[in-house]
């Protein structure tokens, strides 16, 4: 081919960003690919809406019109929901097109099938933009995985909920006020459920699981807790202990078992994600050779996301066709999911006798707020004994109770 | 080839790390390359020293013995100083070997020549380990550069000096005590000059300049300031303003001009490198599409560095032979270097009249310590008028004087 012909499915923020980037960065694309890239078609919902698209581009509501185009090489998919995206991309691959997607929900559920199909058809699949926007986490992991055994990933994968938590702490706002501001600034959708209940972060985490461990835990059994239960009072109390709430998506392989969760945790200053604030995303990767590396940057936005998708274009066109999927075989992994394996917890809505009776070391900050040192088993035991209103947040990063190193081992020193 | 035959030049920390990694990660290498990798020779200084190397490996002090081996495919170079490394790698390329180096000084001065030679010989050059150890900054930049115009890079590129500055602030240590601890912990060499005077960071910055901008500023004219002049008193005063000293290596392209420097600066909490502590390295990259992304991780160490070099092996063997060097053409760049273009400065050893007379806004913290709002031109003017003992540190990140937003524009409110 002397020109790379591309179609874009969807012309929302992401689709339009890809279009504008291809228009404005032709020189870079020609330098990288040795030929120009031309957007020949755009799939839209409403044909009559006014858009700034060159007149020689086919703008249509009919996917078949796009598939009937001769010499189509690449499909950029920038629509939401699993369907019809998955069906469209299967069709595109069957027709020999490379596909590049930003659709995290679809790729969470159907990514492996698309990768398998693409390998048979000797085309490429790019999904960098589906996780953490402009941060090149997929390609970085693919490189690291050539040699490293990656054992754990933890990330802040949803900018909206991180913005809300930051805003609550810094501006002493209620959850509702911070959410309203996020919506006003365009970070949160009119329906912000995917962000604040943790589904969006969950999709991204499962995509990373597939890449790093070669498979996903049973999706329905992964524990997903949103940030809606976090109060300003809790945030301020945690702050007094030097702790911050972060909505942490984490997956870890320990003793051949996968442990995955998306849940609010309290992180201390030594934790690599303590300082990630506002709408930024960040991912911390632990490899057996490289140790811990952290990537931080914009997790969304028109141009960061477009940057990731257009980089994917260069990547799929440059790499040898039919290169085997790099997902690691992981046949020995027993699927499982679990709580953060924490030793310390912030526990609220509990009576101190319940902690004392369970033999748990703790410190009291306010009437019903305690920092406790307890094993996951002890926490499970507590849960069985209380009425279901108690809240438990794991504390990660270096932390200890103030009374912990006293010679006499006091239980509940402030009690 | 059915086996990849490799030689390692040097068997210090890095060379030994590469050897051990290739031994321990054969499974991963075979999965990535489709064939095993065998270390067939190691170049050492002293043949008689006892080392844990398999008996079928040629251990020699003579480079010619290595070059005379049949079917040698890759050279890992892990020695120091420009020579004889550069000569060895030129010879290796001429013989059709891929070369992978961790030698920042050599690659700073001779990298472009090696890349040009390798392109002619259709072999690869890997230099990921030469900058920021295990952090995959070279490959990340190569990817971003496919599409993004990278306009600025700033990094903490020397773990030893960052450790010293962290230790001084956290433990209230003198420079000398922190340096002694760095040496005791094995972070600093017996001769730590390259670290604390900034040469090590300078070499790495110039390698990044070649990659990102396609050329380097005139090396002799780049301003390099070490950290030896920073006192505990200055660190504590800065801390009162919420500022931390960081030894910042930065290069920026503004109006087609390159500005490069390696110098201590004061960063405020909003700065992306404020939180980088201890021996970690970090690099912040600004691209026109992606915005700001930051990579942080171990900048040195046996296995992080080996991880980068062995990933390079996979990379050079997987990519099409003779792929053009990805360095950007940058013929329009006028070479230049300059100070940080700061608006705020910490100025010490100066009289407040000198600041007042120069029409500079300032605040006094202690007798001869001032935070000042001044243009680089005003700072230049000050320097001309004083006796050369005054110290100026640029402040980067969001910062303002406490009196700045008062209605009456006071000059030197505390004076």
UniProtKB/TrEMBL annotation, chains A, B:
EC number: 1.1.1.3
Cross-referenced PROSITE patterns: HOMOSER_DHGENASE
Gene3D superfamilies xref list: Dihydrodipicolinate Reductase, domain 2, NAD(P)-binding Rossmann-like Domain
Single Gene Ontology MF annotation: NADP binding
Keywords: Amino-acid biosynthesis, Methionine biosynthesis, NADP, Oxidoreductase, Sodium, Threonine biosynthesis
Pathways involved: Amino-acid biosynthesis; L-threonine biosynthesis; L-threonine from L-aspartate: step 3/5; Amino-acid biosynthesis; L-methionine biosynthesis via de novo pathway; L-homoserine from L-aspartate: step 3/3
Domain annotation Homoserine dehydrogenase catalytic: ranges: 136-314
Coiled coil: none
A Pfam family this chain is assigned to: NAD_binding_3
Catalyzed reactions per annotation: L-homoserine + NADP(+) = L-aspartate 4-semialdehyde + NADPH + H(+)
InterPro entries (UniProt xref): Asp/hSer_DH_NAD-bd, HDH_cat, HDH_CS, NAD(P)-bd_dom_sf
SUPFAM superfamilies per record: Glyceraldehyde-3-phosphate dehydrogenase-like, C-terminal domain, NAD(P)-binding Rossmann-fold domains
Domain Aspartate/homoserine dehydrogenase NAD-binding: 10-126
Biological processes annotated in GO: methionine biosynthetic process; threonine biosynthetic process
Recorded family membership: Belongs to the homoserine dehydrogenase family.
PANTHER family, sorted: HOMOSERINE DEHYDROGENASE (PTHR43331)
Protein name listed in UniProt: Homoserine dehydrogenase
Species annotation: Planococcus salinus
């Amino acid at each position: 081919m002397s020109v790379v012909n591309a179609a874009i499915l969807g012309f929302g923020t992401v689709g339009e960003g890809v279009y504008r980037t291809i228009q404005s960065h032709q020189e870079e694309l020609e330098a990288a690919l040795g030929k120009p890239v031309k957007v020949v078609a755009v799939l839209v919902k409403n044909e009559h809406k006014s858009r700034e698209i060159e007149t020689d581009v086919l703008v249509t509501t009919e996917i078949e019109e796009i598939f009937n185009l001769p010499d189509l090489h690449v499909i950029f998919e920038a629509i939401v929901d699993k369907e019809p995206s998955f069906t469209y991309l299967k069709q595109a691959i069957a027709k020999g097109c490379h596909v590049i997607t930003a659709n995290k929900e679809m790729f969470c559920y159907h990514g492996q099938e698309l990768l398998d199909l693409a390998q048979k058809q000797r085309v490429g699949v790019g999904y960098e933009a589906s996780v953490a926007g402009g941060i090149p986490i997929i390609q970085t992991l693919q490189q690291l995985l050539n040699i490293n055994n990656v054992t754990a990933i933890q990330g802040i994968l949803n900018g909206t909920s991180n913005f809300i938590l930051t805003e609550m702490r810094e501006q002493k706002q209620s959850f509702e006020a911070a959410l309203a501001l996020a919506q006003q600034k365009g970070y949160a959708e009119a329906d912000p459920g995917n962000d604040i209940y943790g589904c969006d972060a969950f999709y991204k985490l499962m995509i990373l699981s597939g890449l790093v461990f070669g498979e996903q835990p049973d999706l329905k059994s992964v524990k997903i807790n949103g940030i809606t239960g976090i109060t300003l009072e809790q945030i301020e109390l945690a702050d007094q202990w030097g702790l911050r709430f972060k909505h942490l998506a984490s997956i870890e392989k320990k003793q051949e078992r996968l442990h995955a969760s998306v849940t609010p945790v309290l992180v201390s200053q030594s934790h690599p994600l303590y300082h990630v604030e506002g709408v930024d995303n960040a991912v911390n990767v632990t490899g057996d050779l490289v140790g811990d590396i952290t990537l931080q940057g914009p997790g969304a936005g028109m141009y960061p996301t477009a940057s990731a998708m257009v980089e994917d274009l260069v990547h799929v066109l440059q790499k040898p066709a039919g290169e085997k999927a790099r997902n690691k075989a992981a046949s020995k992994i027993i699927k499982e999911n679990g709580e953060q394996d924490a030793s310390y917890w912030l526990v609220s809505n509990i009576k101190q006798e319940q902690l004392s009776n369970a033999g748990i070391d703790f410190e009291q900050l306010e009437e019903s707020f305690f920092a406790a040192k307890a094993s996951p088993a002890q926490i499970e035991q507590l849960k069985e004994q209380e009425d279901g209103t108690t809240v438990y947040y794991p504390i990660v990063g270096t932390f200890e109770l103030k009374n912990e190193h006293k010679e006499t081992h006091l239980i509940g020193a402030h009690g």
